[in-house]
Amino acid sequence: MPVDLDNSSAMTVSTASGEASVSSTGNQPAPPKPAPKKKRNLPGMPDPDAEVIALSPKTLMATNRFVCEICNKGFQRDQNLQLHRRGHNLPWKLRQRSSKEVRKRVYVCPEPSCVHHDPSRALGDLTGIKKHFCRKHGEKKWKCDKCSKKYAVQSDWKAHSKICGTREYKCDCGTLFSRRDSFITHRAFCDALAEESAKTQTQTAVANPNSDEDPKIESPPPPPPPPPPPAPAVAPSTAVISAVLPIQSPELPENPTQILEEAPPAATGLNASCSSSTSSSSNGTTSSSAFASLFVSSTASASLQQPQATGFSGLSRVMTRPDRPTELTPSSSTEPISLCLSTNHGSSIFGTAGQERRQYAPPPQPAMSATALLQKAAQMGAAATNASLLRGFGIVSSTSSSGQQENLQWNRQQMEPESTSVAAGLGLGLPCDEGSGLKELMMGTPSLFGPKQTTLDLLGLGMAASGSPSGGLSALITSIGGGLDVAAAAATYRGGEFAGKDMGRS
Amino acid sequence: MMQFTETPPPPLHQITSFSNLPMNNNQIHRTRPWPGFPTSKALGSFGDANCMEQLLVHCANAIESNDATLAQQILWVLNNIAPPDGDSNQRLTCGFLRALIARAANSGTCKMFTAMANAHANLAINTHKFSVIELASFVDLTPWHRFGFAAANAAILEVVEGYSVIHIVDLSLTHCMQIPTLIDALANRPEGPPLVKLTVAGATEDVPPMLDLSYEELGSKLVNFARSRNVMLEFRVIPSTSSDGFSSLIDQLRVQHLVYAESGEALIVNCHMMLHYIPEETLSAIHSTNSSSYSVESSSPSYHRTMFLKALRTLNPTIVILVDEDADFTSNNLVCRLRSAFNYLWIPYDTMDTFLPRGSKQRQWYEADICWKVENVIAHEGPQRVERLEPKGRWVQRMRNANFRSIMFSEDTVSEVKHMLDEHAAGWGLKKEEEDLVLTWKGHNVVFATAWVPA
Predict the structure, then answer these.
(1) Do B7 and A179 touch (CB under 8 A)?
(2) CB–CB contact A377 B423 (8 Å)
(3) ipTM for the whole complex
(4) From CA B284, how far away is CA B302, in angstroms rounded?
(5) Which residues of A touch B9 (CB under 8 A)?
(6) Nearby residues of B60 by Cβ (< 8 Å), 6 or more positions away
(7) pTM score, two decimals?
């Protein structure tokens, strides 16, 4: 049976999913054009006589769309399938592609609530619809390791990773920011701003264009912010803006590259205007108007934050340093504020954090389990407890690192302390009220200090069974549970776990 | 003085493998069950937060019942398992440990604890005085505050459309950190920026995070910044304190309201984690039990929170934003409070772990601030205990009782907040609960944001 290659892919689609439908809009198939150049329609406005294809999510995301009809092997690309089919030694007739002109195909999104589900808003590119589906309705499996931004499409993620951290806002004080909000909040309070405005106020309206003045700060207020004047100097920036504005619907990663390409010419344009003999006030006007109009578009659609920021920051770098080369030297701030990504700091901090997290697994731990500690506390009684308590508070606890045997022997020697020595243990030199009472306790149960050398895995329940000097503590000993090893416990450090602080609690 | 608490009999069924050990029945005492006595099966492995929490609870109980020995022993154990430089759980527990010691010392029942507290003094919680830049970078680190800022600013922008003068009353724990982005957004209104009057109350050193400069200096920086954006900003500080429900602030605003009511000025009250310092009903419960030492004043503290909201309502604000932490620290029972606090404050420790390396000074500052709160919740009572968080449900009820009606955050706002969260680590989430937004970390509620208009 003649197998048409074009049909095979469509057929594959329908057999694989059972849900594909092939319908067409428009009246007649268009006659084949002589030299069909791939015409790009406006996004979301497909060719009216294109063939609309609706694929199920499963089919859409299927990685092997092209299936060999002979052996049912699947391939990601048509060319690969062709190469494979050669190996089947098909008769010549079967090998050829159909000469029938392919009708243009457009694809709709399978998600019913999506705007692209409607055939009139179908997308013309299968890869495009796949990416759209992933981005809007898919799970975000790809994560940027620098900034934790998540993506559903791998190519988006790659594109982002290339530029992450390379776009910065730079404050006059030298600190770099990757986020606009951070930049604004910092800038509002930064001393650099205070100095700038002090300078601004002492200068006249017609200032030297080569001044260090940040053109974003207005020179002594010509009253209200001017509406964007269509000055010739603004033309390059408006070129950027106009490039930004129509980029409403195509998906994310295309924008940064476009804007980045636009920015340099805009930059040169602005540079030209800056270094021309225009006064600084018109400098400010220019930049603030470009700034303002960029913002108009940014507030208009929140989803464009990413590309907008891109474009703006490109401009901002230009605007803030019209006459200085933009240097990305590390900031002069002393503290490596983690999100101010001066380039070397950023990665090191996150890198360090990552390492630190891994190193968390074995934190410095006491050598004994809580149970053993509780037991020991019960055994040793107050005197030793106090001393080591106070010592412990002053020092990182290493009391438990000394061998149990030592402590027990020391205890035995200390079995009959006088109140003064107890107090000395306290480091106070004052008689402590509790000393006598505890002494009684300790004297009262000498059997406890037998050659116990309790290993950590025993609760020392023998002791608990025979009663304990400090009653409530044995309750704790039995309640906390038995034989728990600190090392194992520390390994369950919850830092990396998503379940929250504890496993079972809601 | 000291009491000896009684031993419970060892649960024999749990130690079947040791049944060959001698049981000396004479030394087994009657048991007094502790509240919340867990079974050993319920507890996970040792370093687990559950275990630490149990120990803290037992210690709290011991202190409350004046059992110095037991308390001291548990403290010793805690001290060993929770070093101040350990993992997040351990550091958190260490903070609680110190708070418990402070409480025991405050209660004065035992000189031992005073000694301990003194020995602690050199390790005392020294809260850091932030510079503005440090504070700016702090609020940026996680969405803890950015969430409230973003939601509030977006709601404010929407509601002041058309107004040419707006008056913002910023009652914020973060000392106006929200304002620059708001000014920036206002500056870019298509209709041009309004005249902005900004009023703040109190001082920069009341509660952490504390600033190393005064509100006046802060304000002048803001004015400067606004000028750089072509926004006219008037800044004003009204000395007023949360302990009396900001009564002087309310009085001032009332006067203003009389003067400006008809002039078409928008009044925005932005409450960001500040209102929980106003005393509420549980404070009066203590007062009534210690009746001899406290005279009931004409404005009893129990009403302050309610009165404040009612007074706010009389000002007919254009919008009130209420953002606060979603936890309950108001119980008069120490153990309840301890549990609440322990089960909430692990979150900031955990979130900071994500971004700040272990030895970083910044992390020490932030954790010191949290320890300040812990100490306040655990070790203080009466009017000194100022950290009186209430969960979202109760605040919503209060606002409704004060004749406010909640308004929804727009879709744009929600998507802006989501974008903002995307800039941070995975683990942060957003929940919409009716009209309110809730920030979550690993599924746990962290901060809620609500918007209100006069009903």
Answers:
(1) no
(2) no
(3) 0.80
(4) 5
(5) none
(6) B100, B334, B335, B338, B378
(7) 0.55
